[in-house]
Amino acid sequence: MSTRTCARRSPPGSACPKGSPPKDVTLSPALSQVVTEPGPIASRKIGVIADTGSDLASIDKLRRAVTRLGASVLVIAPVGGVLSRGSHRETAERALLTARSIEFDALVVAGGTTAASDIKLVLVLQEAYRHAKALGAWGSGAAVLEAAGISADGPGVVTGDSVAKPFIDQLATAVGLHRVWDRTPAVMASAVPPATRA
Question: How far apart are CA 99 and CA 46, in angstroms?
Fold first, then answer.
């Protein structure tokens, strides 16, 4: 910005910087969100959407696998508390009412989760989609993504029949890429065509 433009846009009495911006700036890969190779997923948070009908044993399997990679799993359910099915129990650390995409690096829908038309469920999934975050589902969890208007075979969406090694590896890769930049043209496109001038 020129000194003249700065003076026009700044509050009265504030100083404008002098000089010119540096010409030999190099980009820092450590500061970039746009990467071409997946990085480690240590310290990343993966939200798993579940309910009382979900495959709780596989949530535990996913948790153990991503914990070995340094990431963590937080269960998101319709309400807080403990989900139990058979001998398996999972604590719902987040409720759909308060869960938001900004807290997670990826969201995964557990197999067996009901594809309800709960606006809070749809909201958190669509937020993650618009924020270009990795999404995933195993088993019938893919139907929950579809019910929220998210194609199970879209960019950055990982699906599998179960929480097996290929699913975990694909999810870790997607999370390691930080964002799904291939999704941004669709997310950024306006649903309303621009007005034409006469």
Answer: 12
CATH of the domain at 64: 3.40.50.880
Give the dihedral sign, CA 74/168/114/100. Answer: positive
- Is residue 27 assigned to a domain? no
**Residue 91: domain span:** 45-183
10 Å CB burial of residue 61 (0-12, 13-18, 19+) is: middle
Distance (Å) of CA 96 to CA 47, 50, 121: 11, 10, 6
In order of 3, 18, 69, 123, 136, the CA distances from 167 in angstroms are: 54, 54, 14, 25, 9
Instruction: Summarize pLDDT for 63-86 with one digit per residue, the tens.
Output: 999 999 999 999 999 999 999 998
Number of independent structural domains in the chain: 1
Residue 32 covered by a domain: no
* Dihedral of the alpha carbons of 145, 150, 154, 158, in degrees to the nearest 10: -20
DSSP SS3 for 158? strand
Please write the tens of the pLDDT for every residue from 94-124.
999 999 999 999 999 999 999 877 899 999 9
